[in-house]
């Protein structure tokens, strides 16, 4: 079974391969997803790593607070994103 990790405070200059290599020390990395700003195309400084459960636990313990690219990482188990209410457009008064 796999576990998805939230990885925060990433350097804006990092890439998926560097993050994969960092986490691969602790187990099999199944996926890396770095979040990019839609407008600028720049990294937003966080992402997600999916890996085997035992490796994920070891990675969280070892990497949370560790310096990477001059920034102290935040690594914890990713939480399910809460759904935002849908937007129906501007409300109109039908008087």
Give a description of the structure.
The structure is a single chain. The longest helix has 11 residues, at 53-63. The mean pLDDT is 92. The chain contains two helices and six strands. Helices cover 21% and strands 35% of the residues. The chain is globular.
Q: How big a fraction of the residues is strand?
A: 25-35%
Question: Can you count the beta strands?
Answer: 6
Which bin fits the share of residues in helices?
10-25%
Order of helices and strands: EHEEHEEE
Q: What is the count of DSSP helices, taking H or I runs of 4+ residues?
A: 2
The class by helix and strand makeup works out as: alpha+beta
Question: What is the distance, rounded to the nearest whole angstrom, between the alpha carbons of the first and last residues?
Answer: 56 Å
Largest sheet: 4 strands, antiparallel
Strand order of the largest sheet: 2-3-1-6
Instruction: Tell me, briefly, the overall form.
Output: globular
The residue ranges in which pLDDT falls below 50 over 5 or more consecutive positions are none
Rg on CA atoms, Å: 17 Å
Mean pLDDT: 92
Ordered list of secondary-structure elements with their pairings:
Elements: E1 2-8, H1 16-24, E2 29-36, E3 43-52, H2 53-63, E4 67-68, E5 71-72, E6 74-77
Antiparallel strand pairs: 1-3, 1-6, 2-3, 4-5
Q: What is the structure about, briefly put?
A:
With 95 residues, the chain is of the alpha+beta class. It is 21% helix and 35% strand.
Give a quick set of tags describing it.
95 residues, alpha+beta, four-stranded antiparallel β-sheet, 2 helices
């Amino acid at each position: 079974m796999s576990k998805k990790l939230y990885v925060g405070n990433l350097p804006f200059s990092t890439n998926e391969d560097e993050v994969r290599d960092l986490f691969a020390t602790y187990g099999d990395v199944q996926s890396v997803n770095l979040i990019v700003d839609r407008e600028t195309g720049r990294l937003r400084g966080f992402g997600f790593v999916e890996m085997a459960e035992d490796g994920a636990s070891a990675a969280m313990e070892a990497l949370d607070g560790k310096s990477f690219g001059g920034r102290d990482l935040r690594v914890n188990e990713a939480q399910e994103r809460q759904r935002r209410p849908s937007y129906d457009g501007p409300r109109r008064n039908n008087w």
